[in-house]
Amino acid sequence: MDEMLKELQALIDKYKDGTPKGVSDEQAEKDAERMSQLTAEIEKRTAADAAARESRAARIAAARSAIDNGTAHQVGSLPLSGGVNARSAVYDVTDYSAAETRGFLKNLATSAGVRLVEGNDLNDVERTALTAMEQRAAFTVTTSNTDKVVPVELKNEIISLIDNSTALFSDVTRDTIPGQYELVRHKSITKGDAAKTAEGAAPTDEEQNVFDRITLTGDEIKKTVKLSRKMMIQSLDSFRTYINREVSARCGVAGDKIVLAKLVDGTLGMAAGNKINVAKAGTLTKADVMKALSLLKTYGNPAAKGVRIYANQSTIWNQIAAIEDATKRSYFIDERDDDPTVKGRIFGSIVKLEDNLEDGVIMLGYPDLFRSNLFDGPVVEAVTLPDGSWNTAINGYMLYDGGLAVPESFVQLTVGTA
């Protein structure tokens, strides 16, 4: 690299004042071509070095994260065999995280009557990994809803798929605290709110706030994935993909519907004054959206995601995207990103596709201020169908609940029909 940089600099210096005397056009063309070659090679190597640095940094960050959340691979610190000489020592570098996932899926397949191409029997490493997982769970699982333990790796895959396919459920604040979960709701400022005073005078009243404390117990989500005959023989990877996809799809829709129900709930949802209709039924105008935005409050609570607007496909393209200025230009900007639920922006706020909303209903607000908790799950287990057939299926289970920390942080705007 140093030699190439020196050669390129020498050529740049040679021609900085134009073509030197005595240099033929043919030589000048060769020098120009050489400069192009050097520049391209230097850029290529620089990009490769930058990519290698980013890859190393990502691996280090992933390793630190795995250590912090307890999912790091278990690596023995003492030699399993060999003498005093450390160079001849053998260390246990087994990936127990992957082994416990394989073992769990093999047991699940056996319970569901699915025959795996690789075989359903556990090997020694998978048995050891599952035993260790169950021992850890004995100290950490405190809910009484299920005695089934699911590997962290598999749980994370299912949650990731849910978040990639649901708008509200993925946006809201979500904790994973087993046991009791308490929601603190900021209801109002009863005294000491901003008021006019004489110049230089201190406020006459101290601010006084009203809060509610509500204990959440959780809503159960149980979804059954029925296995067809073609699923009776599968490879381990195909079975894993199928379980993750089907359980996440069913539980995700249910979790999303719980968020929507809680948003309009009389106790845990938005303030009654934040449920409004458009001025003219069936027609959404700029003034309607501005009014809805003006009703939103955070009371100083952090809301990093800002205001987001949620609606189904029909409402987005027939109502929101149809709002135009005096020159007939739409205020809606068709702007997508890596999130498949993002459809664009309007008045600075992201518009997201929420399939579980009805036509003509828009939800807008601060998703950070919807505080929720995943008490348990996702749990995945094989069950016998209650239809007398003795057939088996896969059950997905979650225990989930939530509510608005600030009742004025969301608005429901109903467009309706003309």
How would you portray this structure in words?
The structure is a single chain. This protein is of the alpha/beta class and 418 residues long. It has helices at residues 2-14, 25-69, 96-112, 124-140, 152-165, 168-171, 236-263, 286-294, 313-320; strands at 115-116, 173-175, 181-191, 208-216, 219-226, 233-234, 275-277, 308-311, 342-346, 349-353, 361-365, 370-384, 392-404, 410-414. The strands form four sheets. The protein has a six-stranded mixed sheet with strand order 7-14-11-8-10-9. Helix 1 (2-14) packs antiparallel against helix 2 (25-69) and helix 3 (96-112) crosses helix 4 (124-140). It is extended and about 95 Å long. The relative contact order is 0.14. Residues 76-84 and 141-147 have low confidence and may be disordered.
